[in-house]
Amino acid sequence: MAVNKKSEFPESIQSFASFAKLLSHPARIAILEVLAERQTCVCGEIVDILPLAQSTVSQHLKELKEGGIVKGEVEGTSSCYCINWKKFEEMSDGFIQHILYVKQFKKENGSCC
């Protein structure tokens, strides 16, 4: 049985990787853009806007919600979602910091290979 070494890395790197994984599908990025543009809780409109089936949108919303960057509430037969801005900013700030850290080592004229 393989041992998961994820916990061996600093929390900031784990958070960076989690955020990158949440953003790793174009549908999730599109969903976040719809939620951000609306600036309010969005219910069934996401399915009308994106070229995806209801079940697919629901699965991606579930991933975003489990990752903490989307909040959702069930109201009768519909669910309403919005961005959890506090968590989103926390994760995106860490993401940007790690990207900038790596970029600082870029050589002016290319790479080593």
Written account of the structure:
With 113 residues, this protein is mainly α. It has one domain: Orthogonal Bundle (Arc Repressor Mutant, subunit A). It is 55% helix and 11% strand. The model has no long low-confidence stretch (mean pLDDT 87). Residues 8-103 form the HTH arsR-type domain. Keywords: DNA-binding, Transcription, Transcription regulation. GO terms for molecular function: DNA binding; DNA-binding transcription factor activity.
Summarize the structure.
The protein has five helices and two strands. With 113 residues, the chain is mainly α.
List the helices and strands and how they pair.
Layout: H1 11-22, H2 26-38, H3 45-49, H4 54-66, E1 70-75, E2 78-83, H5 85-103
Helix pairs in contact: 1-5
Strand line-up in the sheet with most strands: 1-2
What would you call the shape? elongated
Radius of gyration: 17 Å
State the end-to-end distance. 36 Å
String of helices and strands: HHHHEEH
Protein name: ArsR family transcriptional regulator
Keywords: DNA-binding, Transcription, Transcription regulation
InterPro entries: ArsR-like_HTH, HTH_ArsR_DNA-bd_dom, HTH_MetalResp_TranReg, WH-like_DNA-bd_sf, WH_DNA-bd_sf
GO molecular function: DNA binding; DNA-binding transcription factor activity
List the defining traits of the structure above.
two-stranded antiparallel sheet, 113 residues, mainly alpha
